[in-house]
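S.,

Sequence below, as promised.
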Amino acid sequence: MLRPKSCPSLSHCLIIGLFVSLSATLRSAEKLNIILIMADDSAVDNYSCYGSDFFSSPRIDLLAKTGARFNYCYSEPVCTSSRVKIMTGRDGVRNYVNFGILDKGETTFADMLKSAGYATAVAGKWQLHAEPNGSLPEDCGFDSYCLWNFPGTTHDRYWNPSLNRNGKILETTEEDYGPDIVSDFIVDFIETNQDRPFFAYYPMILVHNPFPETPDSQPATAEEAKFSKGLKNYRDMIAYADKIVGKLVDTVDSLGLREKTVFIFTADNGTNRTLNYPFRGSERTGEKAFATEGGYHVPLVVNCPTVVPAGIVSNDLVDFSDVLPTLAELSGAELPDVVLDGQSFWPQCLGKAGNSRQWITQYYYPKYKAAAEKHGQGVRNREIIWSQNQYYKLYQDGSFYAVADRHEVDSIKPGDGTAFAEQTRKVLQRAIKSVPQTGQMLNAEAGP
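The prediction came back faster than expected:
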């Protein structure tokens, strides 16, 4: 054994070595575990903690009540854009390739956390592996996985699901329910890694169409008989997704890890366009894939007892690109050495002022052609760029709307708005000019 000059004896060196080892272990033990849950196709108005009196989400509501709820969180209007953005901390204008692709060259939050000593797993929906250069979990820093929409799987995701678990297609039956299998996988991952920091990413299979019954579905009540079967089952699916959130919370609680585990709940985009549902006395239609408010305004709840104070309600803007920097700050991980568009909202989770955003920018290349008809420009007249805050929204083509104008009916002409509106327009114009004006990695040859 080589003896450092500062060690007067071998026994002294051994004591120092043990102390260093113990200190490293303690630092590891102090790291917060992270469980990031992202529902599929579910806007902010699908949750009772955000004012719905039609959908019920008591376990998510409790996380919001005893933690932090953000009122202005924005994803992207469709899944690939949101998943690439949340995983990389980068806007689609920098790294969107095409639908179903996360480029292998990107650094993800799992890469970042694995480098910081975390065990990492992903379970649920993947859909990021398409050609020409899509990614698999091992390309993205995940140690283990259980996934649907993955090489070798079929379209079945709910009953008798087709799932790949760590390279093997599972044998399932008509009695097996996909969301139960993938959430059980996360439970096993948590139990296996309870003695070290862990990061579980759960991009849910729920609540995307098709809309079959859940294991808890019951015959329609007199009230529910008035709904379409799809809406009735969708409401059941929201309730089942909420139940699974509770299942994960209860698992962590039973292991004594509740006060060192951060739960983050959000959704990837708006509600399915086939669904009409009530909200506070009005009727709403799902706006998934559209760049309107209902297409990408999503829930965001953060909870960790003794760390995140109870009852925080924040009106600060949060963009999906902010998730990776937030995970870096709460974990102590080093940020990737790339251009990032996000900024941490962890101080707000702790009840501090933080560095609140004045605006967010969005880049969207719709697969759904109708979504680009109004504001599409650039490649195939499909590229949509906009900037917004909590009050106003400005498109690259100059269209300017109040956020309260949910369906963007009345564009405010220059000079016709209030003094605050016109000042905001200038701020948002500068924001749009601060980012590239077309997709930097968009595969223009492939097309949708």
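DSSP finds eleven helices and 17 strands in the chain.

Coffee later?
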